[in-house]
Amino acid sequence: MPRIQTRCFDELEYSPDAVFEFPSGLPGFEAEHAFVFLEQPATHPLMFMQSLSRKDVCFILLPVLAADRHYELRLSDEDLAALHFPAGSRPQIGKDILCAVTVCAADDQRPHPTVNLFAPILVNLKQKIGIQAVQTQYPAQHPLITQGCGEELATCS
Amino acid sequence: MLVMRRRAGETFLIGEAVEIEVLEICGTRVKLGIVAPDSVLIQRKEIKITRDENIVAVRSVGRQSISSILDKVSAKLAGAPVK
């Protein structure tokens, strides 16, 4: 098993199956084209998207349905093509694609951690290709707090 | 916000140096042509929003932030009130 220097967990072994290519990089990190998705039992359900080439580039991710269980993707034909899906197809979250959102910790500007529902990370699980899509119907700084009825949220764990 | 009505083929100026032409209107999409000096950064707003948020997200990663995020996530998934 190959090993990687990570920002959050020192050096870790990783499976080559957990490496995804981002041919265009991500906005702000255009030179990073390969990320490994790491999960640790102690930090479930968070995932860590660690750049293979830069130890300091790591995103905290949350599966989108844990952030918003009613989240609906609207993928353009350009998004589908970038993910190697046929035009007009409707890939399913969890089955065909992994869809996760980046998390920002609370700071002076934001009283609660926020998730970026506006620009989810999408990967084609079979082809191992990823993009950061744009979903203008959702906010970029959605507070990660319990909202409304707790019972409804409890069912998604 | 200034609102201006333009037809395809019409142009407007921002300052002296930036010129924007409406090239084509097709359904809900507008194709624009932009002439501007090299010093003017032109970018899609959604890419700027995403870039800014990505940079903050990467900067905020740390052991302490992970545990505080995890507390909020656990509380959210359990439906418990958040402190």
Account of the protein in words:
The complex is a heterodimer of chains A (157) and B (83). By secondary structure, chain A is mainly β. Chain A is built from 3 helices and 11 strands. Chain A has a single domain, classed as Roll (BH3618-like). The longest helix of chain A is centred in the middle third of the chain and has 6 residues. Chain A is globular and about 40 Å long. Chain B has 2 domains: 42 residues, no CATH class; 36 residues. In chain B, strand 2 and strand 3 form a beta hairpin. Chain B is elongated. Chain B starts with 10 loop residues before the first strand and ends in a 5-residue tail after the last helix. The mean pLDDT of chain B is 92. Classes of the chains: A mainly beta (157), B alpha+beta (83). The interface between A and B is large, with 43 and 32 residues.
Task: Sum this structure up briefly.
The complex is a heterodimer of chains A (157) and B (83). Chain A is mainly beta.
Give the topology, please.
The complex is a heterodimer of chains A (157) and B (83).
Chain A: E1 3-5, E2 11-13, E3 19-21, E4 34-38, E5 47-51, E6 58-63, H1 64-67, H2 77-82, E7 97-104, E8 114-115, E9 121-124, E10 129-132, E11 142-143, H3 150-154
Antiparallel strand pairs in A: 1-2, 3-4, 4-5, 5-6, 6-7, 7-8, 7-9, 8-11, 9-10
Chain B: E1 11-14, E2 18-26, E3 29-35, H1 45-59, H2 63-78
Antiparallel strand pairs in B: 1-2, 2-3
